[in-house]
Description:
heterotrimer; B: ABC transporter involved in vitamin B12 uptake, BtuC; two-stranded antiparallel sheet; globular; C: 327 residues; mainly alpha; 2 strands; 71% helix
Amino acid sequence: xxxxxxxxxxxxxxxxxxxxxxxxxxxxxxxxxxxxxxxxxxxxxxxxxxxxxxxxxxxxxxxxxxxxxxxxxxxxxxxxxxxxxxxxxxxxxxxxxxxxxxxxxxxxxxxxxxxxxxxxxxxxxxxxxxxxxxxxxxxxxxxxxxxxxxxxxxxxxxxxxxxxxxxxxxxxxxxxxxxxxxxxxxxxxxxxxxxxxxxxxxxxxxxxxxxxxxxxxxxxxxxxxxxxx
Amino acid sequence: xxxxxxxxxxxxxxxxxxxxxxxxxxxxxxxxxxxxxxxxxxxxxxxxxxxxxxxxxxxxxxxxxxxxxxxxxxxxxxxxxxxxxxxxxxxxxxxxxxxxxxxxxxxxxxxxxxxxxxxxxxxxxxxxxxxxxxxxxxxxxxxxxxxxxxxxxxxxxxxxxxxxxxxxxxxxxxxxxxxxxxxxxxxxxxxxxxxxxxxxxxxxxxxxxxxxxxxxxxxxxxxxxxxxxxxxxxxxxxxxxxxxxxxxxxxxxxxxxxxxxxxxxxxxxxxxxxxxxxxxxxx
Amino acid sequence: xxxxxxxxxxxxxxxxxxxxxxxxxxxxxxxxxxxxxxxxxxxxxxxxxxxxxxxxxxxxxxxxxxxxxxxxxxxxxxxxxxxxxxxxxxxxxxxxxxxxxxxxxxxxxxxxxxxxxxxxxxxxxxxxxxxxxxxxxxxxxxxxxxxxxxxxxxxxxxxxxxxxxxxxxxxxxxxxxxxxxxxxxxxxxxxxxxxxxxxxxxxxxxxxxxxxxxxxxxxxxxxxxxxxxxxxxxxxxxxxxxxxxxxxxxxxxxxxxxxxxxxxxxxxxxxxxxxxxxxxxxxxxxxxxxxxxxxxxxxxxxxxxxxxxxxxxxxxxxxxxxxxxxx
Lengths: 229, 283, 327
């Protein structure tokens, strides 16, 4: 069973081919990790899935094709946590959350339960938060609404080890309820969270399978991702 | 002393006009990346609509009609002309350039190129004595209107959902859509607000200058552009501060220097701000 | 052979323009004067396109450099300075002012750049209108009363003004062709398409943009020198922001970034503006305003012929594309 199905995705940005026909499925439960070296096309793939990058090919969600407009995709239940968090620095924490809530009853209990710091700092400008707190806010924004899939781009990038653990625990809990498509460089986090893995290289899918299979095979990991563990 | 007070109040009155034109321009630019050359047309439309309506009703009601016409025109322009070209910034500018050209020509064809005398309400005539200076009341009307609009805009931005969307959109428009929000509705709204404020400026400029002509919008627009750049695009308080600086500088230098020197000083101020803070004062 | 074919079109065009004054239909002084004006604006539009179409810079201040050419020439000649020297000084003024103001304006990009150039040009318009020291004649303008060489005065010599205007267009087009085919021209195209990529190549987009801005300013000033001789004086109109907007319209109508499009747009716009003004009073309502017609045509052109006259393509795709974007 898959919740999101991507087929023959091609993206061209300022004249350069970034993706040359990417196809994969995202499982309806648990975390599917999208892996690859820098410049492999992971972020572009997520942006195309969200309708933020112009593409050709098809992206279908829960069996039906998606609207071309980003806000309609989000309203259909695709929650997006972008690379570099993209919180609104000039708005307060409370305003960031308020802007993101689309339902009559946003689930503040879930968000503040996972990230108590956000409720303590709700009147603070988001731009003055630490990197870890900003990441929590960015995650919190999508957790307010009942989503059917979360698309999360490098949530632990640039965070201190202690915060990485905190974010990973939160994601682990979230993933029990909602499937996640996760781009992540930190293989320890991938090992802890992901059941499935897709590897991109040079704008193409080069490997798919169980993430455990990939990560237990040091030689394979090294050849696909260029890193040991 | 009394000259200085008179110059200061007159400068602030001018600043009020600049602010009314620039605030909408700045929001439209900050949110939607649209440099709207037709913004001066909304001003002229508001002035002429007020002028026409004033023959049939009280001046207060006529101003309301002018503001409504300005807002309506702005919404139509956004929906029909700007919307098909979103993300194509240059083409949007071109279309508004063509619109301002054709629009001013249309106004000339309908109302003639010569200035028309503008009705002057009771409450905007007479003089008020402040610190020994005799100051025409119309200046205070301009300042009061600008303060009201400033307060209303700040309240809108701070307390309403659309205000929140506008503030967030000025920072990062793409991320607003990625939160599931149709940011285009906010574009239309911001156009309407800008059109209404410009039309109000048009009606008030008619009262202040005592005439209205098709060229009024264009000449105020250039200084409004300067105010927007100095104040930082997308910032209402920035526009307010920049408008005050520009209005006072222009008024004082034009009085104490040779005529026209104030206008040149304003451009010099722009150059200095750009050299020191290329993003404007607010950012 | 290929090189020869490439030269055929410009040479053919040249032949047509050189022979025009010898045809009976065009050799009346009035027609020649209009043709000369059309040619000056053809050259101005082409020079403006070096910024807009070739480099992607939307300047709203081009009138300033044109006006510098016009007014500096007129003012110096009224002081008794010979035409040749006055012309050289006028062009140098255009170059120096463009370099100085461009250096500031190019610190910001995109729309802010447009606004700043507009503001700078406004200073020119104000100076010209306020008549500092009795130099510019204010709203009255300046007439070129003395010092104009004999071969450029009098009705019988209108044809010489035509040659002068033709020479100006040829110079502008030659300079542009040279710039565009040079390595620097390719960098400018890169700046237009994606400034960041030029930065990645280790080139500084700023200095290339400033060069284009300065060159374009100098060419505009040169056009001003020719214009003041054709019209026989200077008026405030040449410094107005409307003039820049018209140049923009000419370029967009003709086809930005194409070899001859901007020049054709400039000549055609000037011709139509003149002709429409001639028949305006007989037309009803807004049609009596040439700018209403030209502005409307311009708007339609932006939506439906984005490449200008040089790229008029299939009409049938045009409306569906518009409505797709509206929805």
